[in-house]
């Protein structure tokens, strides 16, 4: 069961954006510039299909047996292309400056359950709608058992530049607990196929699965590094309410590891990955060089604009410059710029059948939206930016947040030299306690 969508205000049936987005704000931040060609614009394409639903997963995904008419895998690409057309019209009608797409990320689910030709059609639709930047990054997620040398070569020939494989573990009993179906012995093969096709490669790992020992986790890291991969994502398992695994935990059928166990596994990951020449650039991500980083995810963490295509997908467009305004300033009516609207986020209906029906009717599939104030935007900027190796500009923080920095440095969670230079940069201990750091610097 995937999480419920947030509450929000209705979205116009045609999907139109608030008029103040193009105007550069809602009037309470005078002179704030509107979106410009220099601001990144990404597209996320959600493919909501899986062959098997894993017990730990709470993503908005479905197996074939869970779907009915109007939501088949065979027709999905055509349905998503209709939303791409709608998105292009909405942005054009908002009179926003035209920008080529800088990053495309096809996620899921398992996008490569669709024929490679369908993924190529979706990328062609994005290119036709907005154009692709000359150096655009185009990524698809994939399960190791859902690709062939031929399918990867077809994707690369069409303009895909990167593939992110859901490896999760190299240990069979860990994969079985996660209900992953691929053979871990296939990982070196799919990495070689992707490399032969000219694709950049990332391997995604999960640590903290019930029953996983430290030696198991070491074996997974060693197996990933043995492929020579240039990017690794390592995420702690989070058991979300409503999932099959959450019910197993509640019934006492499986036991979750302790926080100390997860911290030890994170430290081991950082040690082995760093020794192999990969550097952390976000709390859960390591890359061999800057060019190996996932630029699409960096765009999320840095607050760029993106349009999410597909059921349950989220989108975001902001007004650049508004977050830099002095919060003590008031407009002509005396209203503080703290209350200025600086961005809009919206999200689509979750179920593929409803999503398809709305687009078939010529209506936006958006289920709701929120209009972000300057303070809300700065809070999100702090929450996301502090997770990056480059750290967070302390000017983004409120006075209370800046005062908290000294204590975090004293506790070994933030780097002291970086703080003196005006940035909040996590130490290794700070990465282990990133949520604590975020609470401290965003507490008003």
Task: Please explain how this structure is put together.
The protein is globular. 37% of the residues lie in helices and 19% in strands. The protein contains 16 helices and 14 strands. Strand 7 and strand 8 form a beta hairpin. By secondary structure, it is α/β, with parallel strands linked by helices. The chain has a nine-stranded mixed sheet with strand order 7-8-6-5-4-3-2-1-9, with helices on both faces. Strands 10-11-12 form a three-stranded antiparallel sheet.
What would you call the structural class?
Answer: alpha/beta
Q: Helix and strand succession?
A: HEHEHEHEHHEHEHHEEHEEEHEHEHHEHH
* Biggest sheet layout: 9 strands, mixed
- Oligomeric state: single chain
C-alpha-based Rg, rounded: 22 Å
Low-confidence stretches: 25-37, 324-337
Spatially, the strands of the biggest sheet line up as 7-8-6-5-4-3-2-1-9
What percent of residues adopt helix (DSSP H or I)?
A: 25-40%
Keywords:
alpha/beta; 444 residues
